[in-house]
Specification:
The protein is an alpha/beta fold and about 240 residues long. Helix content is about 20%, strand content about 25%.
Length: about 240
């Protein structure tokens, strides 16, 4: 028995617990991001002892990079490897910082920005048509809340113009919509819900000076003219009250 025990200890000590190449990091659960992308985002420097790669360390790295993982380490008697369980999200909008060039940068609902090459080939077959316009340097504040409200819109939205967060606007199937400064989720939701009620707003005027619909205050929608005017109350465009 002593010989068997000593032999087992000797065998275990001979196992190489080193992760020396990316292929030893196995990725599971990813539906959209490629294995290569996730491995690069984990930023593991090779070679690395598998004992040094803790779950907490990898989880912290994933959160810093905008995605969440549940990593588990398999220390069996097989070749050492790291198994990473991940939940990823599809791209929901194409980023446009320079309207003169075709952007290949996409953003998911949590705000993670990645080039198209970071996703699986299947994702490129069903890319989102929504555009998010941003300043040359910068992001869209409160993107998570904004997208959460926009995705519930009964009116098709083609462009979210966030170049000026204090003057947010949308390009929709019913024309240009001004939302003003980005508000909280409740206000954004109220603004978006108004779109369906105001589908026929363009029938109110044939004036060439009309620029769009102003929903900065969703309770009092306005037509954006050279001189903004409140939509007539007789049209009953105010939201229903409890």
């Amino acid at each position: 028995m002593s010989g068997i025990f000593a032999g087992s200890i000797w065998a275990i000590c001979q196992i190489d617990w080193t992760i020396s190449k990316p292929e030893q990091v196995r990725i599971e659960g990813n539906q959209y991001l490629s294995d290569t992308t996730i491995r690069s985002m984990l930023a593991i420097s090779y070679p690395k002892s598998i004992v040094e790669l803790g779950t907490e360390q990898l989880t912290t790295r994933s959160i810093e990079r905008g995605f969440a993982i549940d990593a588990r380490i398999d220390r069996g008697l097989f070749p050492p490897h790291l198994t990473v369980q991940i939940q990823d999200f599809p791209p929901v909008a194409r980023l446009v910082r320079d309207p003169t060039s075709e952007s290949q940068l996409y953003i998911d609902e949590r705000g993670l920005e990645l080039p198209l090459a970071s996703y699986r080939h299947s994702v490129s077959q069903s890319l989102p048509t929504l555009q998010l316009r941003l300043p040359a340097q910068g992001a869209c504040p409160q993107w998570v809340q904004l997208y959460r409200a926009v995705r519930t819109s009964p009116v098709a939205i083609g462009v979210i113009d966030c170049r000026d967060p204090q003057n947010l606007s949308l390009q929709t199937e019913i024309g240009k919509i001004r939302l003003g400064a980005i508000g909280d989720l409740a206000r954004l939701t109220s603004q978006i819900q108004q779109l369906d009620r105001l589908r026929d707003w363009q029938k109110l005027t044939r004036d060439r000076d009309v620029d769009g619909l102003d929903l900065e205050n969703p309770d009092f929608p306005k037509l954006q003219l050279k001189q903004p005017v409140t939509v007539p109350a007789k049209l009953d465009l105010k939201p229903d009250r409890p």
